[in-house]
Design goal:
Largest sheet: 3 strands, antiparallel
Distance between the termini: 8 Å
Order of helices and strands: EEHEHH
Length: 92
């Protein structure tokens, strides 16, 4: 199993407010200035998918997540299993 420093923990969630947009938060990249706000925002939303990206695949993982969010926010339907399948090469 990779050590915690070899992976990036993330969550895709849907905002709870009227906009209901999908967002991603990278928990292991938060610092003291934004940690509480971002965690509270994610906790107030509707959980969709979470996991770990390999540190070595950081850029590709973030690119894939941005594509997934764009599709979800454009109204495309997607199940968490499809997200996992699309991220398979970058998940830790």
């Amino acid at each position: 199993m990779p050590s915690p420093s070899d992976r990036i923990m993330f969550e895709i969630y849907r905002e709870a407010d009227y906009d209901r947009r999908f967002r991603v938060v990278f928990f292991t990249e938060l610092d003291e200035h934004n940690k509480e706000r971002e965690i509270n925002r994610a906790m107030a939303g509707e959980h969709f998918y979470d996991g770990f990206i390999k540190e070595l695949s950081r850029d590709e993982g973030k690119r894939l997540l941005a594509e997934i969010l764009r599709e979800l926010n454009n109204g495309e339907r997607m199940e968490p299993a499809e997200v996992e399948s699309r991220l398979a090469g970058v998940l830790a």
